[in-house]
């Protein structure tokens, strides 16, 4: 078909040289696909290289501790991906002898692997004719064929997968899948694509109808929740501090943080001081408290905006379970706390 031939020709001339390409080994392909969910290639590539250096095989990843995995993942976000990655590595190593399933339907059974990732591994590693459908694919196909289906609907994925399957050369599904994703990433980009140099500028329905900026159709708007975090950075007479592990459900599960006061709105020094004296000092000692910065740090997640303040809390006695700055750096933190540590806590 003209579409597939043009697309693959474009890909062979324009594809990026990426470290997980030119292999059919499912381990690095799986790693790359998990890392690139919600992550740009430029951001994900250094993490991929770090992981494959530290854990060259699925057995190495399986034998690592969760804290090692989370520490290497630090900054990529969506940390449930890293925890699922680790659990799946342990399952593949121990239960499957280190061999990944070679069928799409069986790959779906692995923790953290959804339809998109299973399709990518099945086609890239085993040449199974199953289409990938991600944001790039939605965008390319909706524009080229002028499809006005709302891509937030559950039925949309089936519709686009059926179309992609129809277009896919069944003898080489891997190159088609790679090509359509790369085309969406480099050429048919979300905003202001350069249609003048596009190989499809004579046949793209959206371009002919001046609808490129209207597609794909996406009606749902994510409701963003605001949260207010006050982190207490304790420092004692020997310059030790204390941290805690986030074990509850929600963001940053199993990462570390400083003691936290979460409030309904941004609070001032009086509020934080009273909380520290009442909850931590309990009248036994006085703590000296000051803000590192009067302005909150705004940390945006996909569905939450975190307004974060760090408070220095100086106490005269030695902290129980206190750790020094070098030990502190060895723990996995959310990137906003990691950056604070590197910038502000060279020494207390």
TrEMBL record:
- The top EC class, named as a word, is hydrolase
Q: Where is the HhH-GPD domain?
A: 35-186
Q: Which CDD domains match?
A: ENDO3c, NUDIX_DNA_Glycosylase_C-MutY
Q: What is the residue range of the signal peptide feature?
A: none
Lineage top rank: taxon:
Bacteria
Per its record, the protein catalyses: Hydrolyzes free adenine bases from 7,8-dihydro-8-oxoguanine:adenine mismatched double-stranded DNA, leaving an apurinic site
Q: Which Gene3D superfamilies match?
A: Helix-hairpin-Helix base-excision DNA repair enzymes (C-terminal), Hypothetical protein, domain 2, Nucleoside Triphosphate Pyrophosphohydrolase
| GO MF term list | 4 iron, 4 sulfur cluster binding; 8-oxo-7,8-dihydroguanine DNA N-glycosylase activity; adenine/guanine mispair binding; metal ion binding; oxidized purine DNA binding; purine-specific mismatch base pair DNA N-glycosylase activity
Known cofactor(s): [4Fe-4S] cluster
GO BP term, pick one: mismatch repair
Identify the keywords attached in UniProt to this record, alphabetized: 4Fe-4S, DNA damage, DNA repair, Glycosidase, Hydrolase, Iron, Iron-sulfur, Metal-binding
Q: Does the keyword DNA repair apply?
A: yes
The family line of this record is:
Belongs to the Nth/MutY family.
Role played: Adenine glycosylase active on G-A mispairs. MutY also corrects error-prone DNA synthesis past GO lesions which are due to the oxidatively damaged form of guanine: 7,8-dihydro-8-oxoguanine (8-oxo-dGTP).
Protein name, per record: Adenine DNA glycosylase
The species this protein was found in: Flavobacterium fryxellicola
